[in-house]
């Protein structure tokens, strides 16, 4: 598929804003991910954690989305990235990184100690993206997906404040890094 | 979501076939739903308090083909499919066609079986065969009936082996079999019917050969089918298929015999199965050549003839496969299925040919070596069942005596008291668990080994305390003081050695599973290096203690030759580890230098640092204090100053290579260790060269370093290229 020509600044990022965004998210995920999800699954995420879901628009067209949750898991407060999608012609331009970075920032500010997700072992793009963000491959999950492919459980551990007293600034440092290095749209 | 109330799926009328329970009764909820619809905004949901992600994910959208397994069916029920003639008996009024169709069914079933073994559900693979689902329907067709019987019996045997071994790990799909007729009437006697059918076809084959060669009037034997020219080919094609099933079933039964008593016999059945597979392969030219005019070409080619088999419908059962959306399953093609069975037979042969009286250490190493061939679930389950029976190795040697021998302790009376110590019992259980875990798939294995480290550590501490208490007791009441002390020392040293061995394997498996990124290699090899040092130290301690005990025994006989041999063994085992210590240290320092000299630029995460990566990668080791006093700070201290110049002074790779070369002569009778030493030598040599090139071209920005596991599964080989 041909890549679309666009300036990074033309991409608009918005937080989940209500029922009108739901069909956009569902269409994107249904198109791009292997797992079938019911509408209950989507609503479970976006109604409970609307602040963790974001959409990316280009000239009014939804081109990417991220859907997440967070909660207590075995005595840790943990964020979870459920779905991350950018449609093919828009890939490789930092949109997914921007979407997921926004979610992770909210998780960190909300007191999460770590973030997890699963990715297919064959999904090199996603693995590289999360690797750059500091995720490690904590486990391999044998035949995890319905299609029989293995998955990696990826994990991002946030620094504990006693180890890095200066860390609240970390994410801010990244903003300037992103702006200068990747020409992505500046954080709001 | 507390205020969400309803998103209602279209309601389905209650089916008369589902009766009301004791405290339940069917009611029409349409009025309630109508009323709710008036009241609900879009996106609202009526839900219970326990509505969670699992509930949301388990919910199905009716009439959505991606979700609703019912909608994808051609037939609503098995009865309906049968009434519509999907699985006729006989398959054709024409006997030649009937035989052709039966062979296609046999082949497709084999492909289904292999697909099942590879981790798909039984319902959608083997039991997509309608003939299997209604055992009584085939009774008038001896050939098909006998084949169906042996398939059901085989599936049942394999299912029970895998469930019993519980090696199925995440592969739980494998053992899901509810609602399937796994045993038809008289399936346990499947072999007698199969033998009778085989006998008949053998006679038909003999008869057709005789009549064609000598043209004499043969006995009064009804031929298999109508076309005399094809009689021999079809008889042969059927015979190898029937014989494969017979010997495969015999093989499973032999392996089930306690204490490995059937293994010799099992090997004979394996050999026969392999040669029958050969005949099956050879029959494909004949079958394909005579398949003209049959049903359309089978794209997936799950049969030798290339024809679509009659009597299969994977969708009929998809409603039995749990509350998941229907999965589309791709059945392995016929060639792949045969390949799978060949591999399975070879793996089983490795299991069957291993000694029944190995030392504990040898048994552990055997499982690790066996896993290198990447055996599938069925082979691994069988190995595990054989290894651990009634808490004994191969059902023969109690684990406690295996441990005693492994620790190098002589059999003494005091052992019996120790055996009763609750922490020794616990240790025995840990060893059994370790053996079982080593039989699981690499992904599951690594997780379990990591978690197990803490148990080993805790048991060590508990044993140490218990021994201290008992030692004091013994020194008061008897003159057994020395003996007791020695026993404790031996056992404790052995427990520590095992703990570090597990940690080493845990770290190695991370490479096989591709869990580490290049930027983590530096810390992973560094951790491997510190674990290996401890392992070598404990091994040395334990081995010299046992050699001391042995020496005291032999001293009286003035057998000084044995002393030397014993010491030699110790130093060889430790030197083998020493070569790997240098190699891991060298790799760690090389990655540190590449990083410090900016040849590798690690990613700058906005959210965390290398410190958090370290904590996560080694969380389970750190929790278990394996080893003590190791932290991110110690890692940084030892790597922060590494550069190409310091590496020139201390050439770890040269050392590794040298030791590996020297120690080889001690392992001339051990081909596995020899091969491992050769690999270590190669990796060390190549990395030494790569490092020199890097050093020489330190200022050349065009030099690019890359890594591959081309010579060893977990020691990386560096390549330097000018880009």
From TrEMBL, chain A:
Pfam families: Acetyltransf_1. SUPFAM superfamilies: Acyl-CoA N-acyltransferases (Nat) (SSF55729). Residues 9-159 form the N-acetyltransferase domain. GO terms for molecular function: protein-N-terminal amino-acid acetyltransferase activity. GO terms for cellular component: NatC complex. The keyword Acyltransferase applies. The keyword Transferase applies. Keywords: Acyltransferase, Transferase. Belongs to the acetyltransferase family. MAK3 subfamily. This is Peptide alpha-N-acetyltransferase. It comes from Vigna unguiculata.
TrEMBL record, chain B:
Residues 351-718 form the NAA35-like TPR repeats domain. One of its GO terms (molecular function) is transferase activity. GO terms for cellular component: NatC complex. It is found in: Cytoplasm. Residues 42-182 form the NAA35-like N-terminal domain. It comes from the Eukaryota. Keywords: Cytoplasm, Transferase. Residues 1-23 are annotated as: Disordered. The keyword Cytoplasm applies. Belongs to the MAK10 family. This is NatC Nalpha-terminal acetyltransferase.
